[in-house]
């Protein structure tokens, strides 16, 4: 039996197809989840993909948080299901309070699309266990509102608990506090990041294949936890 | 809008019905304010046998505008059909919303470039954003899934204060709309020239993919079929955009035209894409049309005209954003993100259910009738009763007078040979840095990095590569490549040659990626057709492009004409933007532009002559524009294309880069910087180093060949008669032109990449 990874499509989701392709390339079974459907269709993990859910006209991710599918995702995430939020998905996770902090407009005020170097700071989450701690990877980054902010106490807490999962290397592309590109929750099963690992899974279409590890990691997690 | 027109029927009072119009032949009508000429208004009266109602006048005025009717350009555009080369690949030709090309394996591709020039000057963000929106809807109306966009842009002088208003707005608009829509932006151009100061050119290209069996044409056939308007509600934005904005020159005396610019909602458009394609695939659609320029006037009259002609529409059923709109305004509104579908009665419920799934507003507003009249009702009364063909397809056609301008001879006689040139290695070095850091020749990554090039996960090549490339089948690797080009400086010197040069360069760019060029779309940006000089430029460019397409075997499948790019007497350079589509059987075979590995051999393909008319060097070093543009030999371009495609297919070339504006040195610098590797270059014996490096002779490309393939590659070139000169090797960390100068890549990169951010960042 293959591992079923759900990928949510909100109206305005854009990278949902790419996320499903990445899951398939990693050997998992992608399952399309629809925003109006509370049923998660027995998936083992969930990806909230990039895009502009509901147009993001209010605050990025602010409306998606209230969709029927998110009620189930939030419940399952609290129960320990691995959840990965990429870009808009990260924003949804913050708006849902599954992750602390918020994403704000890039400090230079422009949308930016670039190949971004990252350091994997925490290789113990279900989404990063195929990396080595300290490993450097390059994956695309593309956002207009990707500046990660939180109050100093939260940032200190994230640092001391090892919950900063990715940090920007070279250039901080959006003014994120402490160069934070991605974080995890206290339990370590929910990970959000601004860069796009699903766009770095094939040599022809990505700058690298460094992103594939996210999707192989979660499959391995499932095998391990069900062993 | 005039008060006269606004009064008609706003509250249902004084409604100008067909009967009322027939009874009141002498009522004064605001035809001039709506952009019609006296004789055009008279012709409308003649067609109808009475004066038009206010609503009919609104429809005729927008549909007979230059923008919608092509009344000045039609007689010249005819050549694209008359001279079209035979092509088995062409499935749908000119005349539909976009042409369709067979790319094999059961796939078809549709692509088109359009202008949104005037709105983008008035309101840069929304103008550019809705330009993307409009072209994307043209593609989905053909039944295709949009897979990429490109943006050929022309702005005024880079250091002019108004360019700082227009460019950032346009770029943010393209990014804001395209990124949110989820379409990768895979190419285009950015060119600065003071001739575009009051008339920037904002063109947008979209390409879409479908299976052969999914091609859909816009028509309303079948009595009783329902006409469904879906998408955004209709508001007061963009009223008269086609007639008042796009079909007149700007005049500083008149009030601001901002209200004539539409406002875009990319989220709504994304839903429209998904909803439309789902309805297509479910087999629910008989005919479909997007609402762009001229809004409902265009959609209803074109759908009806393409069918049997009969249609009845209830305007009261159009969902409105502003309930105070008059029937005239509803018919003229260019509110974005709307489409019109014709659906069989038994399928209406399923169609509406798909719209509901995507939360898209959809309303039945009418039906196809068995007559030949388009009848539109408001509050139960008939306000339009016309033969739709007279609105949509039988508008006025003008044979505008044209004449070669008096200054053309003097311009061509002003030979750049008289200009002082760099005399030694030190001066050459300075000239290279000046060229590469000039706004036109500098890196445009500050702009293209504001566009998402990764979304959809099939982008194989994107800027600064020669062409954009998209994979369309992940199993087989089938893909398409696209490039747009159009050098206004060349076209100013000789519009006939300029159009041929535009095609030659776009063709070469596509071939450089390894794809085989198949078909052409064009956006012809010119000055006022009422100016005989601008009209001559237009006529010459059409003739040149049609001839060149015939010779290269690449038919024009569709496109757009933008006239009136003129403020007062000052017209833009004639700017024919040509987009070429090519196909590649396996994208894994694509040829990128970067020098990646030390030891790769650098070959220059083609002949270099002393050609500096319209060159980047003459502009950068001397602010000069004169002489004649480089000579075009299309048979040579075809041969070069064959060599580049064979090198890609057979794995002989590691890199290829087209040589165009800026000459060889520009291409060398770009390939070095892209791969982060230097090059050691030897000027061939007897060649003048300056001409070798800066000339813009056509039919040339740069290739990097692995040593293991050298013999096979040079044998192929020799056998086919393609001049190929080994001019150097990929090596070190400098661009080193031996005996002349060496430029460390760090210095080159700083010069090339800092200009645009410093100007606009």
CATH topology of the domain at 87-215 and 443-589 in chain B: 60s Ribosomal Protein L30, Chain: A
Largest interface: A-B, 30 and 32 residues
The total tally of domains of chain A equals 1
> Total helix count of chain A?
5
CATH class membership of the domain at 87-215 and 443-589 in chain B: Alpha Beta
Tell me the number of strands of chain A.
Answer: 11
Spans of at least 5 consecutive residues with low confidence of chain B = 1-12, 252-258
Q: Which band does the percent of strand residues of chain A land in?
A: 25-35%
- What does the radius of gyration of chain B come to? 26 Å
Helix content of chain B: 25-40%
Total helix count of chain B?
A: 27
Content-based structural category of chain A: alpha/beta
Shape of chain B: globular
- Termini gap of chain A: 13 Å
Structural account:
The complex is a heterodimer of chains A (227) and B (761). Helices cover 23% and strands 25% of the residues of chain A. Chain A has 5 helices and 11 strands; from the N terminus they run βαββαβαββββαβββα. In chain A, strands 2-1-3-4-11-10-9-6-7 form a 9-stranded mixed β-sheet, with helices on both faces. Chain A has a two-stranded antiparallel sheet with strand order 5-8. In chain A, α1 (16-26) links the parallel β1 (4-9) and β2 (29-34). The mean pLDDT of chain A is 95. With 761 residues, chain B is α+β, with helices and mostly antiparallel strands. Among the domains of chain B are: 3-59, no CATH class; 87-215 and 443-589, PurM-like, N-terminal domain (60s Ribosomal Protein L30, Chain: A); 591-761, Alpha-Beta Complex (Phosphoribosyl-aminoimidazole Synthetase, Chain A, domain 2), CATH 3.90.650. In chain B, a hairpin with a 2-residue loop joins β19 and β20 (570-571). In chain B, α11 (266-281) packs antiparallel against α14, α17 (425-437) runs parallel beside α27 (745-760) and α20 (495-512) packs parallel to α23 (634-649). Chain B starts with a helix and ends with a helix. Chain A: Its main location: cytoplasm. Chain A: This is Phosphoribosylformylglycinamidine synthase subunit PurQ. Chain A: The active site is at 87 (nucleophile), 196, 198. Chain A: Pathway: Purine metabolism; IMP biosynthesis via de novo pathway; 5-amino-1-(5-phospho-D-ribosyl)imidazole from N(2)-formyl-N(1)-(5-phospho-D-ribosyl)glycinamide: step 1/2.
